[in-house]
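Let us practice reading a record.
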Amino acid sequence: MRPFTYERATGLREAAAAVAARPDAKFIAGGTNLIDLMKLGIERPAHLVDISRLPLRGLEETAEGGLRIGAQLPNSDLAADRRVRARYPLLAQALLAGASGQLRNKATTAGNLLQRTRCPYFYNPGMACNKRAPGSGCSALGGFERSLGILGTSEACAAVHPSDMAVAMAALDARVETIDGAGLTRVIPLGELHRLPGATPERETNLAAGEMITAVVLPPPPPGRQLYRKMRDRASYAFALVSVAAVVDAERGRIRSARLAFGGVAPRPWRSLSAEAALANRPVGEESYRAAAEAALSGARRSAQVDFKHELLRRSLRWVLIETTRTA
């Protein structure tokens, strides 16, 4: 690991200003992803600003009937909160499907959203990777593609976003609150936080230099049944090959509305408005389920090694829709 300097932040604005002032500086909180990347030489910050002791661990009710989650709240605490389990079971299920218990105790809400891809080519400094070294090429495309994305990819990068929590939050229309070094705050819809790779896969979010996430706000729980389904190579601890986050409001054999987001298939949590439209005001049943899957897969990338994700998405979505409409 390369040498670095360290400071402990004393305030929100001060922390953001400290990182904004140095292009070689990084925030650190739980460190579950950053430290791994520093050991491999992929992340090389010369200065770390420790924000783990800032007062960002709260979980409070909002005036509109939702929840405001502090950026430093550990994933395990968020998953265990009785309000989250009762009102946002989708989120609790996604959190418990991610990582190990030890990692969830350390990983934070903001860190989970900002974790970097687990593409094996990104983690191998001996391989070309446009995300790690812009302009170097992509060894993953045409290489071992099994973990790569099928939606929202580009010729420069097809790596997927690894977070389960972010997929659930995308389906719940979460919003991210931030502060910058000048003390200015803003609110970013979760769907606008992460960028598609295009020709600049190294730019993964729309956060400005030094801009720090302070909280994630969940709107009041939407009507309908919630469910998170994750398909992976082993049940104990693995990233998603395909995951589905669903909120489906159905009654008397008819689907009123649906919210659908997918993980393991795109460079960001993938909210599919076209699949949602294919279900709205449609009868419960196989025809509607198939229409939603085909809408979700419209324009999806094909290759011999990732074609299995198409069928895996279809079957996962069908299972989720059957479960969420079972009593309708």
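A brief commentary: DSSP finds eleven helices and 13 strands in the chain.
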